[in-house]
Amino acid sequence: MTSIDDLFERTRAENRAALVGYLPAGFPTKETSIAAIRAMIDGGVDLVEVGLPYSDPVMDGPTIQAAAEIALAAGSRTADVFDVVAASAATGTPTVVMTYWNLVERYGVDRFADELAAAGGAGMITPDLIPDEGAEWDAASRAHGLDRVYLVAPSSTDARLAMTAEAASGFIYATAVMGVTGQRQQTSSLAPALVARLREVTDKPVGVGLGVSNGAQAREIAAYADAVIVGSAIVRCLLDAPDEASGIAAVRELAADLRDGVERA
């Protein structure tokens, strides 16, 4: 049993979905990203995704791209990501890294896994790594006790869903839309069908992400998913704030609204 397994065992006993919040490390500075993550947790986030800023985030929308550019301009590096993970994990909240795979390869797969585990990280989300190309990560993650969170999409075949579910641990990340990350006015109509298809091949927890921006949308997704994943809306709180304190307060307020949504589903 990992810390993520424990979390989903608890949320299922409480008859609610888990709330997952994302923020890039080092945005807008390392210290502020740590403070914002603590605010997310104070507001009710159950699991934290720490993003590793990247100069070519092809799967991310303009909000997360802007945050990554700010973090990189401020000098954020991989070592800083592990510092942010450690600060988040020190609160007792399961914390994972979300990163493009080539950054891990360049750093060294086993080295990355070792340092992530040493920081208290629970696992990693790899949006552009498919299980059939993930043998090195599978071995390293198992050696260091880390969960492997893979993505599936509405376009995934039934065979692909089954294979991905078998390889994944912790939870499976179901992308609710075909496209890049970002806030949307409505939740995806494709998501319930995708989750239902996953339920046919696995009993592992399923988290739904891409597009959630408020408690009402979180409530919709929590009615059929094991986790509601929110990223761009949290990042936007900091991007739009006139100052750091206001941004952190906005993050806490949004997290509380989202948590209310998953509680009331």
Automatic annotation (TrEMBL):
Catalysed transformations (reactions): (1S,2R)-1-C-(indol-3-yl)glycerol 3-phosphate + L-serine = D-glyceraldehyde 3-phosphate + L-tryptophan + H2O
Complex formation: Tetramer of two alpha and two beta chains.
Function text: The alpha subunit is responsible for the aldol cleavage of indoleglycerol phosphate to indole and glyceraldehyde 3-phosphate.
Pfam families: Trp_syntA (PF00290)
GO cellular component: cytosol
Xref: InterPro entries: Aldolase_TIM (IPR013785), RibuloseP-bd_barrel (IPR011060), Trp_synthase_alpha_AS (IPR018204), Trp_synthase_suA (IPR002028)
Domain of life from the UniProt record: Bacteria
Species, as recorded: Aeromicrobium marinum DSM 15272
UniProt-listed Enzyme Commission number(s): 4.2.1.20
The protein's annotated pathway: Amino-acid biosynthesis; L-tryptophan biosynthesis; L-tryptophan from chorismate: step 5/5
This protein's name: Tryptophan synthase alpha chain
Enzyme class: lyase
PANTHER family, alphabetized: TRYPTOPHAN SYNTHASE ALPHA CHAIN, CHLOROPLASTIC, TRYPTOPHAN SYNTHASE, ALPHA CHAIN
Cited NCBIfam families: trpA
Keywords: Amino-acid biosynthesis, Aromatic amino acid biosynthesis, Lyase, Tryptophan biosynthesis
Active site: E49 (proton acceptor), D60 (proton acceptor)
GO molecular function (one): tryptophan synthase activity
Amino-acid biosynthesis listed as a keyword: yes
Family: Belongs to the TrpA family.
HAMAP family registered for this protein in UniProt: Trp_synth_alpha
Signal peptide stretch: none
